[in-house]
Amino acid sequence: MSDTPQNKMTQDGFISEIEKLKARIQELETPDTEEDDFSFGNIFEELFGTDGFDLSSIQEQLLTASLQNIPNPAYMLSMDRKLKGINYHFSNLFNCSLEKAIGKSLQNVFPDSISKFVFEKEKELLKNNGTANYEIEFEVEDKSTIVVISESIFNDLSGNPSGIIGVINDITEKRMAERELIESEKKLREANATKDKFLSIISHDLKSPFTALLGFTDMLINDYDDFDDEERKSFIIEIRKSASNAYDLLDNLLQWSKVVRNKISYEPSPILPGQLVDEAVHSFSMQIAKKELSVRNLLNESQKTFADCFMISSVIRNILSNSIKFTDNGGVIVIDSKSNNNFLNISILDNGIGMSENDLSLLFRLDVHYKQIGKSNERGTGLGLILCKEYVAKNNGDIWVESTLGQGTKVTFSLPIYNPDAG
User: Which residues, including other chains, have CB under 8 Å from residue 298's CB and lie 6 or more apart?
Assistant: First the structure.
């Protein structure tokens, strides 16, 4: 809208024009008795013809003033789609002052990412001569904003299209909440499906050792006298292996279930990983001696990390147990560490049977049935590594595996280095 003197109207001038209008209406409401074609349309025709009285100017000023009372960003366009007015909320949303906006199209004010879309919507609006509602998303100061734009064509007092009024409703919070809800539901469904499959796999793995237990005990009960002492001893050894496998699997399963249900306490403190490795090696001393393995702990005895002692002890035992299972008699297992910024990377390396690339891709997954047979027919289900991943993540670390089939495996996990000055 131009700010020329003829279009600007002071308060006194406006009151004066209203008084003129009232007087003219009274005059037109008492037509000559000879006229029988009186109508309100004639009234407005007479008004439009009144010298010095510009109803379209008054209408425009009233609409412009009304924009300021709308609680959402709002604007008014001419029929050639040039801005004639905006309110404070519009100016604030698009960081555009009234002076800079007037006379420009929305495409010059809106972000480039949506300007073309808005331009096409306005074309449809003018073609249909009605209303339009559309939702768009754009960036404002690197923040995603989602709005609904409602536009409507308004007419002048003669009933001809005069311009467009638009109101912008910010629905960002609503849409973001809906998206988060959809994503949460998706993750929950996936987690439930994964756990169901995982429990099915574990149930199968639990049956295997008990099948062996029942089979060997049945043989001993029914045919005890048919076997010599050496055969009976071999049965007992197999029974112990099956019982041990079942126990380890159940223990890991119980620990894992506590972790995923947040039923296990997390109590970080300064710990010595080298000491925990010594304890784990000692607990496996019989298996190590039986396979004549060489286990070397190269960790610095004084190096401290900040983590939960129980969880990290379980991580070390699980990884070391796997190395013992899958390393040939007379093989070598080396436990070493390397500082990486504020973390200590602890690696357990063996020269065992290793893994293929396909087997590596199956690690840490609940939804696949991963099983590997050790050099002395020991069985691994992969649950131990899944538990390790949960524990390491709880302690703000990471875990990864490198392996080559036939050459060995290296499992590395990171822990925050203890900083006494960190408070």
Answer: 334, 335, 336, 337
Q: Please say if the pLDDT value at position 39 is more than 50.
A: no
pTM summary value:
0.51
- Cβ-Cβ contacts under 8 Å for 115 (sequence gap 6 or more): 106, 107, 108
Q: Is 135 left (phi over 0), alpha (psi -120 to 50) or beta?
A: beta
Spatial contact of 281 and 313, defined as CB atoms under 8 Å apart: no
Once rounded to an integer, what is the mean pLDDT over residues 370-397?
A: 73
Instruction: Indicate the DSSP class of residue 316.
Output: H
For the segment 75-104, what is each residue's pLDDT rounded down to a tens digit?
Answer: 988 888 888 889 988 988 888 888 888 888
pLDDT bin (cut points 50, 70, 90) of residue 33 is very low
CA distance 26 to 202: 93
- The DSSP secondary-structure symbol of 418 reads P
Contact 113, 200 (CB under 8 A): no
186 in helix, strand or coil? helix
User: What b/e readout covers 100-127, taking b as 16+ CB neighbours within 10 angstroms?
Assistant: ebeeebbeebbeeebbeebeebbeebbe
